[in-house]
Automatic annotation (TrEMBL):
UniProt xrefs under Pfam families: YceI
Family annotation (InterPro entries): Lipid/polyisoprenoid-bd_YceI, TTHA0802/YceI-like_sf
Coiled-coil zones: none
Protein name: Lipid/polyisoprenoid-binding YceI-like domain-containing protein
Keywords of this entry: Signal
Signal peptide: 1-23
Database matches in Gene3D superfamilies: Lipid/polyisoprenoid-binding, YceI-like
Transmembrane segments: none
Domain Lipid/polyisoprenoid-binding YceI-like: 46-207
Entry annotated with the keyword Signal: yes
Species in which this protein is naturally found: Rubritalea profundi
Organism classification: Bacteria, Pseudomonadati, Verrucomicrobiota, Verrucomicrobiia, Verrucomicrobiales
């Protein structure tokens, strides 16, 4: 009887762990209609992303979670004096560079069921506002930008942490979106449904862009 009880308890614990949604430990992005992007020239000096930057994601389903990300992306910040400019920052993601912790999943993610990279090979994040604001987890700023993903553009507000020195800038974010907002609606198997929430993490490092001369 004790063996049976311990087995049941262990199975229950395993089930609870496998069903945990990673989004529960992240911050929900505020999603709204896309904002107008200023056509005025960005102010300040351009700082480009370095090779040690990363954009990753975590998706989950009934039986567990998977991690992935993008191998190829580019972008920049603008620095005015000793602070980040209010706008002008951009991230461009090559969706064909999607990777995952499981090769079979990687192939499925780039298919029409999910990212449909053959038809939509690029995603962008264009910053429309940056406000110094302390977040619930100690973040330093509130970032607003138009996220164009899977052919859908929405404005999202996310708390970010900015660390800056004379030589480098680092911006970190840990947030989640509802994939249905971006028309990614593949449900998964009937007995292993995929959660709607997807965690996205930015770890963006930038240095002053070399000027030609």
């Amino acid at each position: 009887m004790k063996t049976t009880l311990f087995t049941l308890a262990g199975a229950t614990t395993l089930l609870l762990v496998s069903c945990e949604n990673p989004a529960d430990n992240s911050t929900e992005a505020t999603v709204s209609e896309a904002k107008e992007v200023s056509t005025a020239a960005a102010t300040g000096q351009k700082w480009s992303f370095t090779d040690n930057s990363a954009i990753t994601f975590v998706g989950s389903k009934v039986t567990g979670s998977h991690e992935g990300g993008f191998k190829e992306f580019s972008g920049h910040f603008y620095v005015d004096g000793d602070t980040l400019s209010a706008s002008g920052h951009e991230v461009v993601i090559d969706m064909t560079s999607t990777f995952a912790d499981d090769p079979k999943l990687q192939g499925h993610l780039i298919s029409a069921d999910f990212f449909n990279v053959e038809a939509i090979p690029t995603s962008t994040f264009t910053v429309t506002a940056l406000e110094a604001k302390t977040g619930a987890k100690g973040e330093t700023h509130l970032l607003t930008g138009n996220f164009n993903f899977h052919g859908v553009t929405k404005s999202i507000d996310i708390p970010v942490t900015v660390t800056q020195s004379a030589e480098s800038i680092n911006l970190k974010a840990d947030f989640f979106i509802n994939r249905f907002d971006f028309d990614v609606k593949y449900p998964g198997m009937q007995d292993d449904l995929i959660n709607e929430e997807v965690v996205i993490r930015f770890d963006l490092n930038a240095k002053p862009t070399a000027t030609e001369g």
